[in-house]
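Q: Can I see a sequence and its folded structure?
A: Here is a first one.
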Amino acid sequence: MVTPANYNIAIGQGGGSSVGAAIPVRNNAQPKKEEQPQKIDDAKIKYHKIKLSDKYSVQGNWTEDYIKKVIVETSSKELEKNLELMSRYRLITFKLPDKQTYLYLKDCYIIDSLEAPQRYKGAGTKALQNLLEKSLADKDTEGRIVVYANIVDGQTSPAGFFYKLGFRFGHEQKNEIMERWLREKTTEFPKITGMMYLPKNHINKLLMYKQVL
């Protein structure tokens, strides 16, 4: 059977189908253009390596895989200085402890800066994932990464961004504030600053993270 130009004959399934039941279907529809995925520029991340020998001192509650405790006995010179201060300022209760405990960071990477071309597009997260893979491959750092969350524009802190990716503060009170912020799902980031680190049990959280804030 000859059919008009630019038409196809659609035949229904089954033995009862016939030419008389044919349905003309237009074949001249324009094909849809495939949407090209938007290219997102890479984030710019700067970092450097800290070694235990640098004696980078921190405070707070850190996991043992990040810090080395060093107990130092108070020297005689420090005791003499203590007595001198007490005499000068008439301090009676001021007294140096016999021993002092210092917390030094083990070998790790510290992030100096992280600049993403666009927010909420994943570039910043990808840069952190790449750095984590580098740290995991380094036999000295073994996945350890630290960052100082600081307010750079006078208004916001990056603490929320890092916290959602698995980073934690060395002070539990700050972590509790961040947990409340996550539960309440408010859009305003807490203006909290301080040193943050990626605990060993949160490594997979960052590696598998697909969506940024």
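Q: Show me another, different protein.
A: A second, unrelated one:
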Amino acid sequence: MPLEAIEPRRLYRQIADQLRHLIDHGEYAVGSRLPAERVLADRLGVSRPTVREALIALEVEGRLKIRVGSGIYVVEQQPAAVVPGNAAIEGPLELLRARAFVESAVAEEAAVRARTEDIERLDEILVEVDHRHSGDELIALDRRFHAAIAAILDNAVLVRFVGQLFDQRINPYFEQLARHIENASTWKETHLEHVVIRDAIAARDPLAARAAMRNHLQQAHGRFSRDFGEPPLAAAETDLRPVRARVVA
């Protein structure tokens, strides 16, 4: 049998594996509530965003139910909800960090090269946002805005790459997290950040454009990292004795 390359297990997948193991072995019974995100993160010695990605993965697999304002509960797994536990899917927050790295540089160069017609194209997209209300329509316009900025560089590879990065949000983990987080308020924040990016590019200010894009995607990361409105710590289950920090960084 030929040797095959071994893909390192992403940190959030390792945490999901630990929690799944505890559920399977009865440490957390169906109907019980898991410790709050902040407690899990503290006991495991990892960031809350990493814990969040693990919890979302388990919710998509049908092992957990996240109830905003109440907590995270173990549920009876439904076969139709199953996603393979070893699915090679990037975490939503990992994707946003990658986009911040790439697209801030793209925006910086776009501010140098932008022509009048490029700014007009961005304006058309921003105006159209006011007439769209469904999540799918807003996501499509969000993609068009970022792709239009990449198109200013007149490089088909970059346009395709930026589009592919964006399209990776169309996966079960990102979509599940978005259901908990995205609403009219978050879309308004996104729109205002887009306007700042547009203005920096229109002003032909490369440093401001880079900063505006980085800030936008960092803010998006922050929005997706917000807690689910967990109950106060005193009211939440804090015992995590079965979990041990067996994570390999």
